[in-house]
What does this fold into?
Amino acid sequence: MNTICALCGTPLTSAEMLVGKNKLADGGYLCTTCFNKAISINKELINTLDQYYFAEITGMFLKSKIDASQNTMGTQQTGRGHYEYDAPTRLDEIKDQIVALNARLSVFANEEVNALEHILDRDEKLLAIAECIYVHNKREGIVFATPKRVVFIDKKILGGIVRNEFPLREIISIEHIENLLYSILKVNIKGASAEFKLHNKNDGRAFCTVINKGVEGSGAPVAHQAGIQAFHQNIPDLAQEDVFTTQKASSETIFEQLEKLGKLKDMGVLTEDEFTEQKKKLLDKL
It folds into this structure.
């Protein structure tokens, strides 16, 4: 369970963890201060906060800050009065772009999102972003696309950032394969490929649209349909993985998979029906 505020990072008290009304849709919690600020922006949040994701709440905060700054600038000054406001930071701009993309990032991606201001160039804009696992090194982080590149980053616990970068000029094509519980995003580069398992199975569509369009515009070859179909055949549905096809799956393996299913449902990756269906398949193996 998270023990810090999803917005400001302040350690949560036991009382704040038990309130219930300060919980977000993706599992994070707000401290009393941030919860009160959220209510001051939108009074309905006092009873509906659990219907909103972290990205949506940060978007409300950012919009409120921008509106306040615009109102301050438009207020006529009199006498020696002086009005000050906080101009949006580069990180504010980046988070605003994430909200505009309707990205469903959980609180577990906060550290990576905060690191983007040090990775993106000043004029570099996000075109797509998703929470994922990089299949090559099994690291969990975020993958994002800009007009220049596709990048995977993972903020290490003890500091530092793991980064894998793929310049657009080296990308031949990008493919997205949806399975029942997740989807695979495959970036085809010259002589190799990189695969990412996306937590939200719908996120890969945006990557395919913006990157393949950019690749076509640059004159680079795009993979033929036959190649894409072959890729489909090589990516099995989760329902066909060992845990479901093995005749005598161990109870330990099944319970581990049940735990993963629960986490995916809590993160919003699985619908209730999808969770129930996969849970039944697992329990049938006991």
